[in-house]
Amino acid sequence: MEDYHVAEYRYENDHELGLFAIYDGHLGDSVASYLKANLFDNILKEPLFWSDPQEAIKNAYSSTNKYILENTKQLGPGGSTAVTAIVVDGTDMWIANIGDSRAVVCERGTASQLTVDHEPHTTNERKRIEKQGGFVSTFPGDVPRVNGQLAVARAFGDQSLKAHLSSEPDVKHIKINSSIEFVILASDGLWKVMKNQEAVDLVKSTKDPQTAAKRLTSKALGRMSKDDISCIVIRFRC
Fold first, then answer.
1. Three-class SS of residue 112?
2. 66 in the same domain as 41
3. Which tens digits make up the pLDDT trace of 10-68?
4. Do residues 145 and 159 share a domain?
5. Which intervals hold domain PPM-type phosphatase (predicted)?
6. What percentage of the chain carries pLDDT values higher than 70?
7. What is the CATH number of the domain that holds 209?
8. Domains contained in the chain, number
């Protein structure tokens, strides 16, 4: 396991913030560990956070990635995907991601994917990678990879691929209302063996979010998922 997660509450500027994240590391866990300790702090230190959260999140992702790449002697050559959620006063949620960790919302019992899986073979990602001088190959193996090495097109770190990877997150704002029941954040070890609606159906009757998360990870393990499995369930009371 090279995953790390964050699930905590803070009070900042008279606001209650719920901070949730899954960091799925590769080639070691140093980058994911660094993200766990620092990414949310970097986001909240952004001067624009309270006026323009989307821009603040993008700026913090970029500056954090720059720091990681400049400090590979300490952090190593590896990298990490990320999916983060910031819930402000229980009424607004900002979801961001790079890579293939995913956020799925349950709204009136129906699953909707909130994030984009940044896979190298998709048209937009392949075009960007090739424009930057890289290539996408299924050799070795049968999974599309950037320069035949990494199976995601966006990530933190990865010094050897930095010219061909992006650290720009997709960011989405969700207004929390009575129709929003819960959100699942999970690394790809869950989503490789479970569809979005199936995951929602499995836990929608489970009121305790920690129990729900454990149920999802256990089901993925039972299906012999061969990748890291980390999961957080955020349940709302509206």
1. strand
2. yes
3. 999 999 999 999 999 998 899 999 999 999 999 999 999 999 999 999 999 999 999 99
4. no
5. 1-236
6. 99
7. 3.60.40.10
8. 2
Model confidence over 148-188: pLDDT tens digits?
999 999 999 999 999 999 999 999 999 999 999 999 999 99
Model-level pTM? 0.95
Q: Token pair of 55, please?
A: 């821009």
Neighbour count for residue 189 (Cβ, 10 Å): 22
Two structure tokens written together for 12: 């900042």
d(Cα 87, Cα 81) in Å, to the nearest integer?
20
pLDDT band at 238 (very low <50, low <70, confident <90, very high): low
Q: Which of 61, 46, 58, 57 is CA-nearest to residue 12?
A: 46
Residues 100 and 195 in one domain: yes
Residues 133 and 26 placed together within one structural domain of the fold: no
Structure tokens, 164: 């061909």
Token output for 95: 């979801």
Q: Tokens 């049968």 belong to which residue?
A: 142
Q: Classify 183 as helix, strand or coil.
A: strand
Q: How far apart are the C-alpha atoms of 151 and 147, rounded to whole Å?
A: 9
